[in-house]
Amino acid sequence: MILDSCSKKVIGMDWSRRDGVSDISSSLGDVGEQGQFNVDFSRFIVVHGAGSFGHFQASKSGVHKGGLKQPLVKAGFVATRISVTTLNLEIVRALAREGIPSIGMSPYACGWSTSERNVASADLTGLAKAIDSGFIPVLHGDAVLDDVLGCTILSGDVIVRHLAEHPRTRPEYVVFLTDVSGVYDRPPTDPNAVLLREIAVDDNGKWSVVNPTFQSIDKQVKMTVAAHDTTGGMETKISEAALIAKLGIDVYIVQAATSHSLKALSGELRRKIPDDWLGTVIRFSG
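and the corresponding structure tokens:
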């Protein structure tokens, strides 16, 4: 999620010690010479999923289904949170090492909860203050308490949509980074898979593919979900992205660590999407 732009001079920020060896890469003298580090930053909110750091624990114990009174579910709740917070720390460290002033913010610890898997409460005060103070909040999919089910998994996709709906955290645009070029009409491993370049969302939140134009009116988009994924995979991602687009916020789904994702993150695509850009844009058509 991207709010607005600013420019900062920074140094590496992961000063932790590991195995008795200092990871501090700068001295006080370096701090005084920050002029050499001139990096352009945007005001981002980063939200990452759990991947192998949480889905397996949640799936094995059934945390996503609720039933917190069951010993296995309670143990799985703890195991899931240990795993996802570990990943969150590593991501924050990676950003910090690049001089990006990031702050890990766990949804459970920040008061997020659900009711039948829908967000029931979310205290955004700390997140908004972090942004105003020049930090980049890094949130993640998390195990949370649920008023009806006892507990469930709150996905990163749902978190992004909730933030987009809130005036204090409404982004200019949203970028979903994945390990494939975008949304396909079938699993991308299929040699006949076609990249869906643009998806339009109507007033009712329903979406349809507008580029490319399929000849067959009954052409269906087929998606699969990994057995261990407790949050719905790409299908949930598109559904949440459609709800965000309905708010008038463009959503880009693109492969991470590519020139295409860099263009999306930099805001270039808001002006015009180049013909050679590989990714999927989801926009409101109303």
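(Above: one complete record from the training split.) The chain has a mean pLDDT of 85.
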